[in-house]
Write a structure and sequence with these properties.
The structure is a single chain. This protein has seven helices and eight strands, in the order βββαβαβαβαβαβαα. By secondary structure, it is an alpha/beta fold. The strands form two sheets. The chain has a six-stranded parallel β-sheet. The protein has a two-stranded antiparallel sheet with strand order 2-3. α2 links the parallel β4 and β5. The longest helix has 12 residues. The chain is globular.
């Protein structure tokens, strides 16, 4: 990305509810986009599993699932990004509990979908997208990301 340090992304950390899913169900097109990304980046889904559907919704997809205990979820998400090596992580989320992981990751993307997005999550991200599929496609078609972030 002209004007920025090179990105060498190895991991993608994704929030579930409000990001990959709406009311506990995967957003249309997410499964296909994740399957296309999987050969080039390790996929991690981190969630409190508010609706209790994450395991069923992600069954058969090439992701590592982390279900968080209640309390301090923002810190747990940031710790996950740090444990993977933040400089090699892209993260996508929308909630206030995503703000720290979005800011910590080499590339933080906030999605603003039907659930909305917390202002703190937007402030912590480098990029904002109108849908999760658009955000995933930034990683599938990096020239879009270049166009957004170049100086």
């Amino acid at each position: 990305i002209p004007g920025s340090a090179p990105l060498a992304l190895e991991h993608l950390v994704l929030d579930f509810n409000g990001t990959l899913a709406e009311d506990g169900e995967l957003v249309a097109g997410v499964d296909e986009a994740l399957a296309r990304l999987a050969p080039s980046i390790r996929l991690h889904v981190v969630t409190a599993d508010t609706f209790g559907t994450v395991a069923e919704e992600l069954a058969g997809l090439p992701v590592t699932l982390v279900v968080l205990a209640p309390g301090a979820q923002d810190l747990a998400k940031r710790r996950l990004v740090q444990s993977l090596g933040a400089g090699s992580v892209a993260a996508i989320g929308n909630g206030r509990n995503d703000r720290l992981m979005l800011a910590e990751a080499a590339l933080g993307i906030c999605v603003v979908q039907r659930e909305g997005a917390a202002a703190q999550a937007l402030a912590g991200a480098r990029v904002a997208c109108g849908s999760i599929v658009d955000a995933l496609e930034l990683l599938l078609e990096p020239r879009r990301l270049v166009a957004t972030l170049r100086t």
